[in-house]
Amino acid sequence: MHDKSRLLKHLTVHRIGDTELQVVSDLESGVSPLIEVEKEVIGKYRQNPGWQDGVIMLFLLKDLEPLIRQLSQVASAPPGGIRGLEYRPIINIYDLRNPHSCRIFINQGAMKREGCWGDHEAIKALLAHEHAHPLAECATTRSSRSLRVELSFGGVAAQFGDSKGWQSKIDGLLGVVVDKLCLYAPREIFANDVTIQSGFTHPLLYLDKQNVVKAGEGLRSKGVLRQELQKEVERRSLTALGAELLVTIAEMKGYLDLALETASFYRQDKITEVRELEGLLFKKVIPYLEPEVGRAYERLRDGYVELPTDASPEELVPFEESLLGILAGALWAKGLELEYRLQCQKERKTRS
User: Does residue 55 contact residue 94 with C-beta atoms inside 8 Å?
Assistant: First the structure.
């Protein structure tokens, strides 16, 4: 993928066994170390019997605007939508019909914001996870792509009013939460499973521990969020219950995805590593979350640990419903009745 408005600084081809690595970059510097990390990751994955990549295109870019423009017309999008790719440090684009090639995009801007730029151990973990996605494809991941969720609300949501578009904010935030923690969860969990199975346990643990520390630091902004919402309450554009609900949803969006990480260490019997990771998590993050969110983390993690790899769409429905029920339970405690319709070949409607 080329963008004529951007000047390419680097274009090389490398061979790792029978895998061809094509590198395209618009970066002024820092390209060669990343290529070496990618070669190391490919070298390990070539030992995996399921490895099929014959051609890998590695794009090292200042940002992902060229990719965002290219994908702007697609029907499906990751959690947060196509524009959400602005904040993704790395992404693997691959075609299920052609397992012999893929395109890896590294976003320098997002890497710097995440504190990963120049941290080769973190980059190794990110690359290993993205390369794991095609290898992690299974019946359950295919089934997950056939499911859709429709959300509707009752209770305190009706009190938001239209002056600031609060209902729209709730819809958008919860849509991202549900997509990430329910519909996309199998793909992320199984990719982490393969990452660990392929010998990248240490880099993944290193990255996850960094993310837990950052999550703890991010909780410092909780007070700022409460202050901003209190101003809206004083202006009577938002109810006090509505403000509490928004804090809870923000925490669900920002922290519950840590369960996707810890679950795979449990699934792969990495007990020493998971104790280290969760020890950090229960020290720096969980005690400072809303109690409902902390409980939801543990319930999601336990549910993810039991996720099978061979589920049909019909078999996956009750599993997804259980995840939705966990999220609905946390919201119900704050006065929001989350009603959801999960669709596949059969359709069910559940209310919590």
Answer: no
> In this structure, are strands 90-95 and 10-16 parallel, antiparallel, or unpaired?
unpaired
Task: Give the tens place of pLDDT for each residue, 305-343.
Answer: 999 999 999 999 999 999 999 999 999 988 888 889 998
Nearest to 182 by CA among 210, 215, 212, 140: 140
pTM summary value: 0.90
Strand order in the sheet with 148-155: 148-155, 336-343, 347-351
Q: Is the pLDDT of residue 36 over 60?
A: yes
Rounded CA separation 339/206 (Å): 38
Q: Which of 133, 184, 129 is nearest to 304 (CA)?
A: 184
10-135: what fold?
A: Collagenase (Catalytic Domain) (3.40.390)
**Alpha-carbon span 261 to 210, nearest angstrom:** 12
With contact defined as beta carbons under 8 Å apart, do 281 and 260 qualify? no
Name residue, tokens 């730029």. 117
Measured distance between the N- and C-terminal CA atoms of the chain, rounded to whole angstroms: 46
Count CB neighbours of 297 within 10 A: 25
Distance of CA 57 to the CA centre of its chain: 22
* CA atoms of 34 and 131, how far apart (whole Å): 15
User: In the structure encoding, which two tokens stand for residue 245, read together?
Assistant: 């609900």
Q: For 206, phi and psi rounded to 5 degrees?
A: -60, -50
Which residues in the chain are classed under CATH 3.40.390?
10-135
Strand (E) or helix (H) holding 123: helix 120-135
Residues whose CB is less than 8 angstroms from the CB of residue 335 and which lie 6 or more positions away in sequence, other chains included: 155, 156, 241, 244, 245
φ/ψ of 174, rounded to 5, equals -70, -30
